[in-house]
Design brief:
With 139 residues, the protein is mainly α. It has two domains: 81 residues; 34 residues, no CATH class. The chain contains eight helices and two strands.
């Protein structure tokens, strides 16, 4: 809803920063890398959403790479390119850069949102975001 009302109309800029909480989820780093590898084939959000949906399947695995490859096939990626990207750590630096950016901004929890510099930690209903965005747009 926010995407259609604000982002698609150019009223709001949306930036996603990955922040895998490795201390809580040891496989989160590789999951973030998997999403970015999928993004190299134009399917970041499809993989991102599938990883969250299937988290209970892969989170406890010592090496969830096979599961990630299966998801890559489900969303129509070239699995060989995806596998190579993931195995070589091609997107690891991107994840590290996101972690550094999150630390620089003082982010310690997920999800965290910024609306014109105002930090919101935690999940909020649509109406809260809408009200804050509308307030900022009126300035």
């Amino acid at each position: 809803m926010l995407k259609g009302e604000y982002i698609d109309k150019g009223l709001v800029r949306y930036q996603f920063i990955s922040m895998p909480l490795r201390s809580i989820h040891p496989a989160a780093q590789k999951a973030a890398e998997a999403a970015f590898c999928a993004g190299k084939q134009g399917k970041f959000w499809e993989m991102h959403d599938l990883l969250f949906e299937k988290q209970s399947e892969w989170a406890a695995q010592i090496s969830p790479l096979k599961a990630f490859e299966g998801y890559a096939g489900q969303i129509g990626l070239n699995v060989e390119k995806f596998r190579t990207c993931l195995q070589t750590g091609e997107t690891a630096l991107q994840v590290q850069n996101d972690l550094a950016e999150a630390a620089k901004r003082g982010v310690v929890a997920t999800p965290t949102f910024f609306i014109n510099g105002k930090k919101l930690e935690g999940a909020y209903p649509y109406q809260v975001f809408k009200a804050l965005i509308e307030e900022e747009l009126q300035k």
